Amino acid sequence: MKLYLGPCVLESSELAHTIASTIVEKILPLQKLQQTPQVIFKGSFDKANRTSINSYRGPGIKAGLKLLADIRDRYSLPLLTDFHTPEQAMEVAEVVDIVQIPAFLCRQTDMLIEGAKACKHFGRKLKIKKGQFLAPLDTKNIVEKAHHFLPLEDIILTERGSSFGYNNLIVDMASFQIMQSFGVQVVYDATHAVQCPGSAGAHTGGKREQIMVLAMAAVAAGADGIFLETHPHPEKALSDATTSWPLDKLPSLLAKLITLHQTVEQLQD
Which residues are paired to 234 by β-bridges? Predict the structure, then answer.
């Protein structure tokens, strides 16, 4: 089971290094609990769809990619970040191991084409977040667009919840099996899936207390990995403060998920 961990947005070098060092010191030892784990450091250089014009967006592509490269070089962690325009794809893929398309952009053909081409050029993987407005079956067309340029093993889908009325998301646990039937890995975004979009006025609210139970349900449903944003002081996070998982509680949560994943694999044998 792959783990995609890091801050929502790259707030500072200090924050990125604090989280990366914790991953190396506290999370990597958990690898002993499973045979083929991998931990990927994630962080956004730009949050291009913030609710408010006054919200912090990030350091930008140049400074953000440089910071991510520093994390890779110092901690030997694979990297993931997202891009927001087709023109950014090559620049991002040159630095990170996994290139991500945000949920709101998942149907944009130019994003999928340029992302897939860049990943093919640099030997990267393309991770696509399922839009909150899509049914799991609808992602088949998304996969087919990317598969025109990339093998299926280099395409990853992400379940991050579906819109349920106003200001709320729910997760259909059957979506993992449905999307996996297209021949790709499917990851569960444990923190964005508990968002309450726009519910806090100028920023997005959320239900952090539901992260653990839904993450366990996703693992039981067969998710291939967990994507989870963390922060040493979630209430002070510059993005997704209501859903970022406390860094000091990260090891215990992941230990439970890894143990559950082992049990699920044994039951499937």
Answer: none
Which pair of structure tokens corresponds to residue 39? 């931990």
Q: How far is CA 37 from the centre of its chain?
A: 16
Do the Cβ atoms of 56 and 239 come closer than 8 Å?
Answer: yes
Distance CA 71, CA 235 (A): 24
- How far apart are the C-alpha atoms of 2 and 194, rounded to whole Å? 20
Q: Decide if 146 contacts 126 (C-beta within 8 A).
A: yes
* Residues composing the chain: 269
The amino acid present at 251, given as its one-letter code, is P
Contact (Cβ atoms closer than 8 angstroms) between residue 226 and residue 1 = yes
pTM: 0.94
Q: How far is residue 231's CA from residue 219's CA, in Å, rounded to a whole number?
A: 22
> What CA–CA distance (Å, rounded) separates 227 from 219?
12
Q: Which domains does the chain have, with CATH numbers?
A: 2-268 (3.20.20.70)
Measured between alpha carbons, how far is 155 from 130 in angstroms, rounded to an integer? 13
Q: Is residue 146 within 8 Å of residue 115, measured between CB atoms?
A: yes
Average of per-residue pLDDT values in the chain: 94
Report phi then psi at 268, rounded to 5: -85, -15
Beta strands in 27-91 (DSSP E): 38-42, 79-82
Q: Are 101 and 126 in contact (CB under 8 A)?
A: yes
The two structure tokens encoding residue 10: 């790259």
Q: CA 94, CA 69: separation in Å to the nearest integer?
A: 10
Q: Which residues pair with 264 in a beta bridge?
A: none
pLDDT digits (tens, 9 = 90+) for 173-195: 999 999 999 999 999 999 999 99
